[in-house]
Task: structure prediction
Amino acid sequence: MSGGVEREIKLSADGGYVLPDLNDLTAGVVEDSGPEPQESTYWDSDQFDLVRQGCGLRHRRRLDRPGDPGIWTLKTPGLMDGDRMVRGEQELRAEGSSPPAELLSLIPEAVDPSALHPVAVLRASRRVLTLGPLTSGEAGAGTVEVMDDTVEVRAPGDDAVVDRFRELEVEMQDGADDLADRVAARLREAGAG
Result:
């Protein structure tokens, strides 16, 4: 199991939004993953006890990698730091039929693990742009990932689409806050909200 603190800025975008050029924001090459088809199954109780406690539990798998078991993620209660959501995140690679005991042991005591079941399935086409620091000597030099997700929401066991949305996430690692601010500003200038 791996874990740490996630720091991200979430932005909304409409279906016609075009990602702006970000190349001038970094001295290195902007790496582009291309489309990554994903399916995320979110787990909670009928009363959404996990969400009420500020937590999230999901299993995500790449649809183009049938042999890969996927990754379970438990997000713990967070706080807003300006426009950033800061929260704990624990991950464990495992198949998706039931949450791993290691993650269930970390959920709040107010939540009954036996009451958890799939509550939503999100199928997304994700594109990830990875940017390094503007200069190698830049203070807090780290990386920023821009995730561009076009998402369809389904009820578990039902293939009917109940909602669609597009979301941008600017996630910073290793103190790349200045770079993240420049990236978020560029995305907003291009029309992200």
User: Anything to note?
Assistant: The first helix runs from residue 49 to 52. The chain has a mean pLDDT of 93. The first strand starts at residue 2 and ends at 12. Strands lie at 2-12, 31-32, 36-44, 56-62, 71-81, 84-93, 117-131, 143-154, 161-173.
